[in-house]
Amino acid sequence: MTNEPKPQLKPNIEDPIEPAFPICDPHHHFFDRPNLHYMTEELLVDINSGHNITSTVFIECGSGYRQEGPKEMRPVGETEFVRELSTKGGNGTTAIAAGIVGNATLMLGKAVEPVLAAHIEAGKGNFCGIRGNAARDPHAELTHPMSPPQGILLDARFREGFFYLQKYHLSFDVWMYFHQMRELTDLARAFPNTPMILNHIGGPILTGPYTGKDEEVWREWRGGIRALAECSNVVVKLGGIGMPIYGFGWDKRAVPPDSVELAEAMSPYLLYCIEHFGVDRCMFESNFPIDKVSYSYNVIWNTFKRIVKDFSQDEKTALFHDTAARVYRLKS
């Protein structure tokens, strides 16, 4: 993500549902750019909007890279940058960036090992994984200069580098489109001891070349979810649906949707993931500030709580906190 539009600040705030319920937000970013500023102060405003966010996980987004030195080492600057931002916020109750997921070029093969070691050292106990971008589509309008090579997860050189994630006990987050999930299934079977986290429910996008192809996308996405769920080392993040590429159009509305409307729209996707992965392999995520173009932080957590209102307390605890804390090995 390099040219994100500035998120609109949506004014919709609701009374929080079960405000004391502990939540680990396992997916947010920090940006300090001319067109997008979202740092600790902005995150804390969102965190303090009514829900009990006990910890967060920062996910790489190209912030704070080193401006000089070996190119492969420059992403370590992001871990250094975020480690300086990690703090106790939210009236002293929220461990900000308790987990840090960074970036490394796994196509380096064995040469990625010193990069991973440098991330771990810079993270001072908070660094827990790498995120890769596998999102590639045959349609030109969904391809840009930052798109990875086709089939990168299947590449032998990539897998040579991927091996070192297991060696350093690191997890692997991945962003991809719905039609690529079988590539991740193949990777997960090849590395069954490496935790893998499918971001944003696997990218069932309904814009661009997929506009009006809801049934086709839904069918292929469901098949990918079912196949991937058979790999016990894979978990899925439930969220990210507020990104405009998903096609719901909430970002274009003068009045943003409330949690009742959002829960109705998101339920088929999120409940399908929970049905196949189970609560111990699913985690709700905010994806802020990217999803802020569509709804507020306060409202999205109400949305998730509405979707699973009939679940047991143990099931909710897994979805909102324990799965994320376990997968990212958080200390708090």
Short structural summary:
With 332 residues, the chain is of the alpha/beta class. The protein is 34% helix and 17% strand. Strand 5 and strand 6 (94-102) form a beta hairpin.
Question: Can you walk through the features of this model?
Answer:
This protein has 332 residues and is α/β, with parallel strands linked by helices. The chain has one domain (22-327): TIM Barrel (Alpha-Beta Barrel), CATH 3.20.20. Helix content is 34%, strand content 17%. The chain contains 9 helices and 11 strands. α2 (76-85) runs parallel beside α3, α6 (214-229) crosses α7 (259-277) and α7 crosses α8. The longest helix is centred in the C-terminal third of the chain and has 19 residues, at 259-277.
Write the layout of secondary structure elements.
Blueprint: E1 22-28, E2 31-33, E3 36-38, H1 40-47, E4 52-59, H2 76-85, E5 88-89, E6 94-102, H3 113-123, E7 127-133, H4 156-167, E8 171-175, H5 181-190, E9 196-198, H6 214-229, E10 234-238, H7 259-277, E11 282-284, H8 297-307, H9 313-327
Parallel strand pairs: 1-4, 4-6, 6-7, 7-8, 8-9, 9-10, 10-11
Antiparallel strand pairs: 2-3, 5-6
Helix pairs in contact: 2-3, 5-6, 6-7, 7-8
